[in-house]
Amino acid sequence: MKRIGLVVKVSNPDAITLADKIADWVTEKGGKVFTDEVLALMVKNAVATRLKDLPGCIDVMVVLGGDGTMIHAARLINGRKVPIIGVNLGSLGFLTAITVAEVFPLLEKLMQDDYKVEERMLLHVEHTREDEVLCSHRVLNDAVIKGDNARLVRLETRINKEYVNTYRADGLIIATPTGSTAYSLSANGPILYPTIHSIIVAPICPFNLTNRPVVIPDWMTVDVTVSPDQHGIELILDGQVDMPLESGDVIKIRRAEESAYLIKYQGKSYFDILRERLMWEVKVVKN
């Protein structure tokens, strides 16, 4: 792989510095680095291109920042089979699992086509009103339906067209296994291994405490209808896109046909990342 794309959290000076070093290194190895027109002004060996055209110019995307930057990059790729390397320069990163020290050894392997890719499922989210599709999006982490104030909302929920419950809660999270360590985790959702093909449905602070998160197989669909006389409801996608909802609106969620592809650092397991990020106790058993 010789064509590298850079997506960087430009407000982080360390990320800019590392981007410049990566561009120099890739150029010395005979590769080419592409990035958006703003970042190209800060990185001397990067070729400027329009952000929306970036995924079509590259073989792999290198993301420097936190999980928010990673999600932005995944949305930018928009279902194309472009693998992503996430380098953690944020405060907490489950998606950006590569450390700064691991970047160049991994890039070296990348240049030799010696790497492993992990497929992550996406969700297809469709917003309908009176049977008219207003918009559709893909999400890597989650779709969240919640109120914009402190009042409970009522959300009629069906799975595979079968009525499940009308949740009275602060909101409802529909998450992928990748998103199980995001907002869903704070709503008492389970941690799922990221390559499992499942969907989490997790109420946020439900009025009825027996309303617990459920996990369903990825071939099922989730339809959520905003109950009558509900105001100030919004749909939030991956924490980055939000849109207002009205009573009667239906959010239809299913597994997307496309996936995201993350490059793994060999020798680091998902449980290593969990242990580090969640600060689980480490005990060494001596023989």
SSE layout and pairings?
Layout: E1 3-8, H1 13-28, E2 32-36, H2 37-40, E3 46-49, E4 60-65, H3 67-77, E5 84-88, H4 103-111, E6 116-129, E7 132-139, E8 142-147, E9 153-159, E10 162-169, E11 171-175, H5 183-186, E12 198-204, E13 214-217, E14 222-226, E15 233-237, E16 241-245, E17 250-264, H6 270-277
Parallel strand pairs: 1-2, 1-4, 2-3, 4-5
Antiparallel strand pairs: 6-7, 6-17, 8-11, 8-15, 9-10, 9-14, 11-12, 12-13, 14-17, 15-16
Number of strands: 17
Oligomer designation: single chain
Proportion of residues in helical segments = 10-25%
Q: What is the C-level CATH assignment of the largest domain? A: Mainly Beta
The fold-level CATH name of the largest domain is Tumour Suppressor Smad4
User: Helix segment count?
Assistant: 6
- Fraction in beta strands: 35-45%
Shape: globular
Major beta-sheet overview: 6 strands, antiparallel
**Rounded mean pLDDT score:** 91
- The rounded Rg comes to 20 Å
So, CATH architecture of the largest domain? Sandwich
Low-pLDDT stretches? none
CATH superfamily of the largest domain: Probable inorganic polyphosphate/atp-NAD kinase, domain 2
Structural class: alpha+beta
Number of domains: 2
The spatial strand order of the largest sheet comes to 7-6-17-14-9-10
- Strand/helix succession: EHEHEEHEHEEEEEEHEEEEEEH
From the N-terminal CA to the C-terminal CA, the straight-line distance is 44 Å
